[in-house]
């Protein structure tokens, strides 16, 4: 099955983690990497160790959605394994994906691991509880996008990721559209994957500024997309005012917390004003 799977990875200043990721997945037939920081040195280092990897450099930071869409559109295999550069995945674990594929008779859009080490669940439900298919496979409504084993044709049928998202909640949005199309998403509870959360980019404080801005921009955009602008505005106006109060409070107490809430306030305000997801890390 791994011969019919293409691994896709989007990187951005990910040199400190990407090599640990790559050394465990070089058995796959094809590996596509898109580097959003246009790093020629990283390309040289990776190609010197893994000459069969297809490495693409983007002159502009395309973000998560557009970056992965770029790679997904080039995939010719039946399956795509989307992983973040800070994911460590032992190739022997792939047999559990193979087992799930055969057990489910290929009737799924996405398979994902259960991450017991995460502070937050990497899966969830919109309106119901988990439904077990067997002792290791559970039907869920959404999974987070650091590891998604995709049935490419089914993902293509729902339109890939929404390109308006730059960072955060594009995975939830994709899963929502998958479920609306009556396709299935499962987690494999015994599939072991190590995810070093918030380690995919080594850009210091700019990473957290970008993260906070897009976290709030994407939350409002996702809510608006599903509920409409009026209900999104009513729901997030109190949150915007709360962030403003936090700004006034932390201005005198903590520069770190002031900056965090400032970026969240700006991200939410711009989303409520229907501005595009324009903020990019300054490097």
Structural notes for this entry:
The protein has helices at 15-22, 40-49, 63-72, 94-103, 152-157, 170-180, 205-227, 229-250, 255-272; strands at residues 5-11, 30-35, 54-57, 79-83, 87-88, 110-113, 123-124, 131-132, 137-140, 142-143, 147-151, 185-188, 194-195. By secondary structure, it is an alpha/beta fold. Helix 2 links the parallel strand 2 and strand 3 (54-57). Helix 7 runs antiparallel to helix 8, helix 7 (205-227) runs parallel beside helix 9 and helix 8 (229-250) packs antiparallel against helix 9 (255-272).
Task: Supply database-style keywords.
9 helices, 283 residues, Spore Coat Polysaccharide Biosynthesis Protein SpsA, Chain A, 9-stranded mixed beta sheet, globular
